[in-house]
Structure formats: structure tokens, C-alpha cells
Specification:
By secondary structure, the chain is an alpha/beta fold. It has 2 domains: 4-15 and 86-216, 3-Layer(aba) Sandwich (Rossmann fold), CATH 3.40.50; 17-80. It is 44% helix and 11% strand. The chain contains 9 helices and 6 strands, in the order βαααααβαβαβαββα. Strands 3-2-1-4-5-6 form a 6-stranded parallel sheet, sandwiched between helices. Helix 8 (170-178) links the parallel strand 4 and strand 5. The radius of gyration is 17 Å and the shape is globular. The model has no long low-confidence stretch (mean pLDDT 95).
Length: 218
């Protein structure tokens, strides 16, 4: 029996990957780096920012350490994603509202900082649906480690077998699986074609994930 649903944030609830890509383009441009969207989709989409920074320093002649690049990106993130909410993924609101209508518990488990989730909660009215937000600020190890999902479960007072996770990226899927959760994947433009081995089901639209929940709630 499903007692709760844990949603990822970026790429699952909100359409933010395009903004994430754009931030990296702007940061790398002064170093003469033309960073392609294709490479971002293949290697960085859905991956925590500090891993992004490590990848970029390893693959490009950037005169910064990974920590320095990460700090630079954090400033840009706060200025952009920390102020204005990204658009909701189609079907996300309907899915969340349906879950709440079934008296299931809800939580967000994200590799982002809380400052990036706050605009979603406030500007899309999601505060009423999500009293539990497990984020990068709460754990030592980001996704694909299970820590953020385990933190969400602890706050919910549930165990992994009680819940289902909804994700959009292989990194998020690995995190959910490592925590022992079943995981539905809803692909987006930036995650299509990636390896989602181990997912309970893979969909192209959030409405399909909601329909799966409707059939499997008991």
C-alpha cells in the first residue's frame, strides 16, 4: 500500500534544466568556452551542481578549482533560480493535487538548496502541499547517494516500502533506488534517452505517472 509520494524538484516539478544550462553557458563564456546543450544533456542534466563543477574543471581549461567554480555558480543560482520560480512541468500540479486528495503524504527530495525550492513553494502555492522538503542543505551526501530520500522518509515517519519516488534523471533514480524506494521516471527534454534501469515505470508525461499511482495506490 502506498502511503506517500516523494517528488524530485528540478526537472520533475519544475522545468528548470534550460535555466541551469543557461547559467553554465554564461559562466563559461568569459573563459572562451562554448558549452553545448548536447553535452549538458549527456553529462550534467539532473546532476548536483558540485558534480557539474567537477566535470567542467576536468574537461575544460578553466583557471579555477571545482570548489571555486561551484561557488561562482552558487552566486548565479541565487540571483536567478532563488528569486523567480521556474514554470511547472505539465501535469505536475494535477499530480500533486491528486496525491494530496488521496490523503497520501508528500515530500520533496532534491539535490538543490532550499533557496532554489522556496520560489516554487511560494509562487506556485505549493507550500500547502509540501511541509517536508529534503534538500542539499540537510545532508552530507547529495544524490546519487540515498541521504536526501532517507531524510524525507524520516521526516514523514515512513519507510521506503510505504512510498514511491518520482524522478526525471538517472542520478535521482539511483538515489531513490539506493534508499530502497520504488521510482517512477517522467522523462523530459533533457533526460530522454538516458539509462533508467531499475525504474518501476518510465513515462513521458506526469499525467501517466498519476494514472499509475491511481491504479497502484492499494
Amino acid at each position: 500500500m502506498i502511503k506517500g509520494v516523494i517528488f524530485d524538484h528540478d526537472g520533475t516539478l519544475v522545468d528548470s534544466e534550460r535555466k541551469h544550462y543557461g547559467l553554465w553557458v554564461d559562466i563559461l563564456k568569459p573563459y572562451g568556452i562554448d558549452f553545448s546543450e548536447r553535452e549538458y544533456k549527456q553529462h550534467l542534466a539532473g546532476v548536483p551542481t558540485h558534480f557539474n563543477a567537477e566535470y567542467l574543471v576536468d574537461h575544460y581549461p578553466i583557471p579555477l578549482s571545482a570548489d571555486e567554480l561551484f561557488a561562482k555558480r552558487e552566486i548565479a543560482t541565487r540571483e536567478s533560480l532563488g528569486k523567480e520560480a521556474c514554470p511547472l512541468i505539465p501535469g505536475a500540479r494535477e499530480c500533486v493535487e491528486w496525491v494530496v486528495s488521496q490523503n497520501l503524504q508528500t515530500a520533496i527530495a532534491t539535490g538543490a538548496a532550499f533557496a532554489e525550492v522556496k520560489p516554487t513553494l511560494e509562487q506556485h502555492g505549493f507550500e500547502r502541499y509540501f511541509s517536508i522538503v529534503a534538500c542539499r542543505d540537510n545532508v552530507v551526501n547529495a544524490k546519487p547517494a540515498p541521504d536526501v530520500y532517507q531524510h524525507a522518509l524520516d521526516k514523514m515517519g515512513l519507510i521506503a516500502s510505504d512510498c514511491v519516488a518520482i524522478e526525471d534523471s538517472p542520478t535521482g533514480l539511483q538515489s531513490a533506488l539506493a534508499c530502497g524506494l520504488r521510482c517512477l521516471v517522467v522523462e523530459n527534454e533533457y533526460s530522454q534517452g538516458h539509462d533508467f534501469s531499475g525504474a518501476t515505470a518510465i513515462f513521458q508525461h506526469m499525467d501517466d505517472a498519476r494514472q499509475w499511482l491511481e491504479k497502484n495506490i492499494l
